């Protein structure tokens, strides 16, 4: 018995609501659990490793973002496949990368058996970032794979891992069939969505390498093919109806040819004359320039002399201006100081300065003192003056001298500390201030007071008075009279100043203004004294200044005469220069005239030499005097030629607008016009050409749709072969099954009509589409209209538009049924059988013949309880015969399978769990009992 290879286990870890799930893939299995428990989630997980392109997957209406989050919510989520291959076991894994990576995932693979213990450590699932280290320590060599690399490895394509990995378990005939294989495999995992249109689409995809895969926009094809014919018909009609315009075009071309010949003869002559004139003009300009340079040299010399004399006159004028200002100033000073002397000015200045200094001193003293302080000082000074005057008056006979008669000086001074000092200076003789009535009693009093003073303390009855710190009166004697007088004078001077300060302090701002006025007066007197000194100096030099003025007037007259002579010479030079410049200007005008007519030349925009040109028969002579007029005439001829070109172009445009456009692609204008004229002279040949184009157009249309017709024939042959291959296998509970290709009759007839008519034309028949009497025109038009209508509605004709499919089923009793739609088949078992057969047969067709019998591919059948056990057993056998392993899903276990895989819950129903220990092997006896 041939050993079979392929997937053996599917395992889920921490994904899709499963804490753990392990199911067999190499034996038919019944996955059973209540509805909405996660049966489909397990099978759909196969899409990640086996389809590995989310764009081609199906998730029961959930979007791809939801799906990634559902299966790979963390970096500890795994979908794992174990496969047994000719070279040994391999593991293919899909690992979640977690929320941080946007719920992405990573493919990986290594040689070895699948052991879920390799994915845990201390009863915790390993993170993907730790997995490779753990696998490496256990002797595995894991590799990370990209989706396209895994896809190539599974289907036998080339990858960078070919030397270390071999995962081929889907041996496709062609690696580029992988997308259609994935699409069919996805539908096998979701059989309830497989319909007749899917089968038709798969059929076209599976057999497309044998087809042209053409898509024909029939309207566009017909229009493009017959557009040429219709345009040719319009061209022929335009040619017939515009004979007068074509004749006029031919006449204009003859006149244009003659003018081209003339202009072609003149153009090189004019170019040569312009070169010669340029040399003549350059030489003449050099001569004039040399003359002007000589005159300019003379002019510069005279201008320099003129500039010198003008400068001298300006200097004389400047000096005269200074002298005039001197005499004006002297006159002013004389009128002011003629009757004044220096002593008088100095005396007035001295008096004003004194007043200013006194006021300044008083202000300086008063500004730092208040009126209260000044009043106190004035009062104190007044008191001091009064005291001193009293001392002076009573210098020898006062109370102090009287007390000295009885007491020592020290005793008198101690007592004076207790008395007012003015009392001590009062007189005691005559009509004095103090009267002593009893000398003895007064003496005893003094003695008593003197004895009461001990140690600088006066101990009087009832009071002790300390004398330390009190001032004793120092009484002058008669010898001090001059000193007292000096003190009186000093106090009186101080009093006078204090009174002045008080006066200022009362009106401080007014005194400041008065000080400023005095200062300005001082400045005025000082300025007057300075101006007087200047006046005396100028008075001494008046005669010298008058002599200098006379000399300047004489010098001015002399220089003005020399300047007049130079100016006359400059005027003569200007006349000579004007004559030379006039000659230069005349030459410039001539050159400008030539430049103008030269700039008006348009011959460089015209073509004198292409096309037809008639040689000019007259000799041409040119001189410089008539060169500008000659070029002007040449330019007029050029404009006339251009107008000819415009008229010719307009005439052609009239013919073109009338519908004759087929010669417009000719790049040579003359040749284009000539072809129009020749066509007009050969109308019969043009009509025959249009007839040939009509035959070619129909042939082009037929050739375009012939490919579609041939594709249909090839598809029918391929499907006949395909159906014959099906009959070689046992087909579930059916006797036979086939998929028929049914051509759409009217569409095929329309295509065949056009192709058949084209074949007749190729065999020599004629088709005059220019006339309204074509022998099969109505039939062709009906076919054309039908094809255009269908192609326009479908956006173009494809092979898919040419046929429908039908499923033909013969049961074991020999009864035949046909179905246009799979879901219209009678029993649920029949519908599932048809869907399974279509999917399995198309996948089998994509597999290489030599390898397809070695590998088994899982298929999924949901709601399996709706299929009776006999049909279940037939489906299992049919699947095995075609290389597939069926997985049934249902609420209750189906004992037709080799394994029953129940799904249970853990963690209080929060997660699902399936362990290999949960698998239940169904014995052959149980199966036979069910079958009976």
From TrEMBL:
Coiled-coil-forming residues are 222-249, 342-398, 542-572, 673-725
Q: What are the entry keywords?
A: Coiled coil
- Name the record gives this protein: ATPase
Say which species the protein is native to: Pseudoalteromonas piratica
User: Taxonomic classification, please?
Assistant: Bacteria, Pseudomonadati, Pseudomonadota, Gammaproteobacteria, Alteromonadales
